[in-house]
Amino acid sequence: MNKNTKQTIGNTLLCVSMTALLVAAVVPIFITSMPSWQRYLLAAGAAGTLVAQFFIPSPSDELRIKRLSRMNVWAAIVYCVAAYCLFSSSFDMRRSWVAFLLAGAVLQIYSTFMLSKLTSGKTSKNDDKIDKQNE
């Protein structure tokens, strides 16, 4: 399996998993009693996100970019902790799934934006160098 195939599989799985997480998070807003399938959907989304993060390779060998890629993996682990909280028998643990879901989302958003900023900056710098060499 080459790098592009892994990237495509990882991105597709990540999109499906994040959609499942979104649906599972929005359901309690519209339905007052928590349906039984909601926690299974959240668990499937969290597990899919974790698997997808291992398929998506780091875009660069630079230390900061690798750290941000690992931060995405940690966000997926926090999503799995949120799913565990929904299956817990303790009432306090069942209420804390939202906090873990939000913490994972904050990690995911930060690392995604910073990865986008750093990788787009690197490609534009490389394009400038190539353009100067071609002149």
Briefly summarize what is shown.
With 135 residues, the protein is mainly alpha-helical. Helix content is 86%, strand content 0%.
The total count of strands amounts to: 0
- The residue ranges in which pLDDT falls below 50 over 5 or more consecutive positions are none
What distance lies between the first and last C-alpha atoms, to the nearest angstrom?
38 Å
Return the domain count.
1
The biggest sheet, with number of strands, parallel, antiparallel or mixed sense and barrel status, is: none
User: Average pLDDT across residues?
Assistant: 85
Rg, alpha carbons:
18 Å
Structural class label: mainly alpha
Helix content: over 70%
Tally of alpha and pi helices = 5
What form results from the Cα inertia axes? Answer: elongated
Strand composition percent: under 5%
- SSE order in H/E notation? HHHHH
Tell me what the structure shows:
This protein is mostly helical and 135 residues long. The protein is built from 5 helices and no strands. The mean pLDDT is 85. The radius of gyration is 18 Å and the shape is elongated. Helix 3 runs antiparallel to helix 5.
Distinctive features:
single chain; 135 residues; mainly alpha; 5 helices; elongated
Task: Give me the secondary-structure topology.
Elements: H1 3-30, H2 36-55, H3 63-87, H4 91-95, H5 97-134
Helix pairs in contact: 1-2, 2-3, 3-5
